[in-house]
Amino acid sequence: MCGVFGAYSQSGSPVLEEVYLGLYALQHRGQLSAGVAWINNGIVRTKKNMGLVHEALNQHDLAKIDAHTAIGHVRHVTEGENRIENSQPLVANYAQGPVAIAHNGNFTNVNGLIGYLENRGAIFQSSSDTETVLQLMAHQPGVVPLEALKTALSKVQGAYSLTVLFDNCLIAARDPSGFRPLVLGQKNDTYYVASESCALDILGAKLIRDIKPGEILIIDSRGIISQKIPVQEQKCCHCAFEYVYFARPDSVIDGRSVYCVRKKLGECLAKNISTKNAIVSGMPDSGTIAALGLAEKLDVPFEIGIIRNRYVGRTFIQLTQRVREAGVKIKLNPQPQVLKDKNAIIVDDSLVRGTTATRVVKMMRDSGAKKVHIRISSPPIVFPCYYGIDTPSSKELIAAQMDIPSLCEKIGADSLTYLTCEDLVDAIGIPKDKLCTACFDGSYLENKPCDNLLEV
Ligand code: SF4
Predict the structure, then answer these.
(1) Which helix (H) or strand (E) holds 46?
(2) Tens digits of per-residue pLDDT, 186-217?
(3) According to CATH, where is 3.40.50.2020 located in the chain?
(4) For 239, 321, 415, 421, which has the most beta carbons within 10 A of its beta carbon?
């Protein structure tokens, strides 16, 4: 999972401070590194570093740079190792001029693409799948950058929401299935593209619309031109898990408020549960809104039973089991005054490895809860994601390894219930055939094998 942002000012106002703020709003989508790129006098420049946005970039220095178009990126590992060479935007000065690219997603045919390019002399500077787009562009001598980009995108498969910078031109592109979100916004004469609408809100910009699956937008001094990526139409596959967990609740994705969807997910959990002496509490912060929906539906008090230290990163986004476990210890603190003698119904968005749930159930009991019921506002995650989310392999996914009664026993809860896939789809409000639910039911989008790659 990553976040991308781009800005183009038609009046020539500097935009880098706005890109910084946009990335700040997208911090939840990646905490490993942050970077920006812009083009001055025909030369592409970049500033990027490891860490959070405010650690990696200096807002005041960026505000002084005179660039009327720029892109930015926050990174979490999907493809490629955790090192500075893989932080984005990736930049290049090739025969047709300077180019910078920022990518959210994952190319499912990256190995075939790398083999194809290396056989033709390409030397890769990073282990990021994003570089294949730059290399595919560079392997089209004499082709103008926009056409070279469109041809490159016709060769890649999988998930991508991209911002790309050429000299005096900002490009936004979303893969033909629309896996990852990408929106267009505007304030006065400046256009923005962002992974989520919350990055427009921070700038006071208005959301114009979602960028459509398979659409490429060219934003320059003429305004906005919409074209299609030259590929066959594909099944729409918006990621259902963006609504469950990844996206910020104040974002609107493909016309759906993430907040409203999460509340509905909670309402759907109001089945087969005793409300006697009960309180409902959310796992902070990802389960809070669904917990509110459940509490309202059950007519049971909503309480903050667990306090989260806000200065510790998301558990899921950290890398090793050891770090994850240490993170959980310092992150959550249960409230005995809320939990004592209660029938505690705890809502979380998902169970991935089960580490957090096991610890929380024990903490709840230690704090005096009589019963601890876990409610998960998504179906069991039993398959990995190949479309840009760093879910573990099925071996590490606890729901893939045991049935629900065994899982309930393992985490020590009195009961454990998940949502069904049907409830998930209903709550999102997008038809099942336009959603990706592959990590829940294994229904991956079929991809053509990369051996079919045509000459570029
Ligand atoms: S497999 Fe799961 S996380 Fe990945 S795109 Fe599909 S729904 Fe989203």
Answers:
(1) strand 43-50
(2) 999 999 999 999 999 999 999 999 999 999 99
(3) 261-435
(4) 239
